[in-house]
Write a structure and sequence with these properties.
Layout lengths: L1 E7 L5 E7 L2 E6 L4 E7 L12 E2 L6 E2 L3 H10 L9 H18 L2 E7 L3 E7 L5 H20 L12 E5 L2 H13 L2
Antiparallel strand pairs: 1-2, 2-3, 4-8, 4-9, 5-6, 7-8
Helix pairs in contact: 2-3
Length: about 180
């Protein structure tokens, strides 16, 4: 028989302790929300002078013109820059998907070369949330274009956990006003 109990931590957060057959297993509590960001295809390449992130390497990497040039040569489609109609379609698609999934959308801003979303998606991995947003936005953009664009977005993006109210308010302000 499994028994669950909640423990309050000093910082106001809680964890769930699951006890099964005499063993305790601590499971971290759900975040308040996620700050999810992804870029359009080809607009922020490895080696970019603004800094870039490399998988499994901590921190932001410095610009590297040679690496950026290599990444540019590997591109099989031109960079994607969203126009105002495409940006509006992306925002409408994210809103509709949040409604369907019953996720709480706190803030959303589709820019010409990236998208920011602050969303609460209980019991859903943030990478999966981002993948769903990107997939549905790609479908809608392809429908609007009348042809299939193979790459609208970069392969991954940024998924940050928001665990306190202050961070949530700052993330919302950044997405709505800091762009």
């Amino acid at each position: 028989m499994e028994r669950k109990r909640s423990l309050a931590l000093a910082a106001g957060k809680s964890v769930i302790v699951s006890e099964k057959k005499g063993r305790s297993n601590v499971v971290m509590s759900e975040p308040l929300a996620y700050l999810i960001t992804w870029t359009t295809h080809g607009t922020w390449l490895p080696g970019d002078e603004r800094g870039w992130v490399q998988k499994y390497v901590p921190g932001v990497q410095a610009g590297d013109p040679a690496r950026r040039g290599e990444a540019q040569q590997k591109m099989d489609e031109p960079p994607i820059v969203l126009d105002s109609e495409q940006r509006a379609l992306v925002e409408a698609t994210v809103r509709a998907h949040c409604d369907i999934r019953r996720w709480s959308l706190h803030a959303l801003n589709a820019r010409s070369n990236h998208v920011h979303v602050v969303v609460t998606a209980a019991e859903t991995d943030p990478a999966k949330v981002m993948d769903q947003f990107k997939a549905w936005c790609s479908r809608r953009l392809n429908e609007r274009a009348g042809h299939a664009q193979e790459h609208w977005w970069t392969r991954h993006g940024s998924t940050k956990w928001i665990n306190d109210e202050s961070y949530l308010q700052n993330a919302i302000r950044y997405v709505l006003e800091g762009q």
